[in-house]
Amino acid sequence: MKIAIDGPAGAGKSTVARRVAEQLGMLYIDTGAMYRALTYIALRASCPMTDEAALRALLDQMKLVLDVTADGQRVYVNEEDVTDPIRTPDVTGHVSTVAAHPAVREKMTELQREMARARSVVMDGRDIGTHVLPDAELKIFLTASIEERAERRLRELEQRGIAADRGQLMADIAERDRKDSERETAPLKQAEDAQLLDTTGLGIDRVVERIVALYEEQVGERA
Asked: N or C: at which end does the chain have fewer Cβ atoms within 10 angstroms?
């Protein structure tokens, strides 16, 4: 069984997908963390974000591991824990540029499909239902107002001890939406057979309940 959860930045994909996976006993795969990990390594190596060949070479050299622990998912690159540094504003500001390169997305898609091949998974991202797992049995597209998405991002950064400005976050999210939606390779868009869930004003528990209910309906129809 494969569940694809797509949506723009700050829509709550990662938190919701992780909770759904825990409740259903599935493997959670955060594809956004994979692109963030590459972006972080590229920044540290002073690799130009526009150099597609160099970024692909970096990715080919990376041993990328997503490890699910009792405290949540940890992200490792070449055995180094990069879970926290990949969430900084600097990485956030560059990840859309990195993710837009076809050679990077090609390799990432290969890795993501391999992760999903042998397990029931909940995978979240921006092109999961349309490109990475087009055969997923359940597809969800999460969205929320820019104001709410910025507020969620602000709280997340504050919890990590990172200062941020709400207005700047709104501008950054709007720009990232534009980049993600307009890129030529696997742009952000809702799959035709995806269920649209607007999470504005909804708590995480409510969103998770709705997705689990949709999953149970899907399983019932296939029984």
From this structure: C
